[in-house]
Design brief:
With about 130 residues, the chain is α+β, with helices and mostly antiparallel strands. The protein has a single domain, classed as Alpha-Beta Complex (Aldehyde Oxidoreductase, domain 3), CATH 3.90.1170.40. It is built from three helices and nine strands. Strands 6-4-8-9 form a four-stranded antiparallel beta sheet. A three-stranded antiparallel beta sheet has the order 1-7-5, with helices on both faces. Helix 2 runs antiparallel to helix 3. InterPro entries: MoaE_sf, Mopterin_biosynth_MoaE. This is Molybdenum cofactor synthesis protein 2B.
């Protein structure tokens, strides 16, 4: 999958009715549990992953007055410093969008069937 763009995702949620746009950008870091990392590789069971993300968005709409929601997770190889996840929300006021973004990333990590393989250049292991 091609690189995720923070600008493109944020443009999807901007609205004249909203004074707040909150973003979470998850990037590949160069270490994991004390080991060097050169890349992560993500796999997903797409039908189930998309369904779980829809459920998370429905939960968010019931809990917070957000206007727009965008959730993107990259699949395939993601080198160090590149974005693997971008979540964006817009709302009239900042509290709703900030809380909703935090809930979204926590829920995504807990519920969505996406697996990552960590590579240090010599070996790989699944997390």
């Amino acid at each position: 999958m091609e690189k995720l763009s923070v600008d493109e995702v944020s443009q999807l949620v901007i609205s004249p009715q909203c004074g707040a746009v909150s973003l979470f950008v998850g990037t590949t870091r160069n270490n994991f549990e004390g080991k060097k990392v050169i890349s992560l590789e993500y796999e997903a069971y797409l039908p189930m992953a998309e369904n779980e993300i829809r459920k998370i968005c429905l939960d968010i709409r019931q809990k917070w007055p957000v206007r727009h929601i965008a959730v993107f997770h990259r699949l395939g190889l993601v080198p160090v410093s590149e974005a693997s996840t971008i979540i964006a929300m817009s709302s009239a006021h900042r509290a709703a969008s900030l809380e909703a973004v935090s809930y979204a990333i926590d829920s995504l990590k807990a519920k969505v069937p996406i697996w990552k393989k960590v590579s240090d250049g010599n070996s790989s292991f699944v997390k």
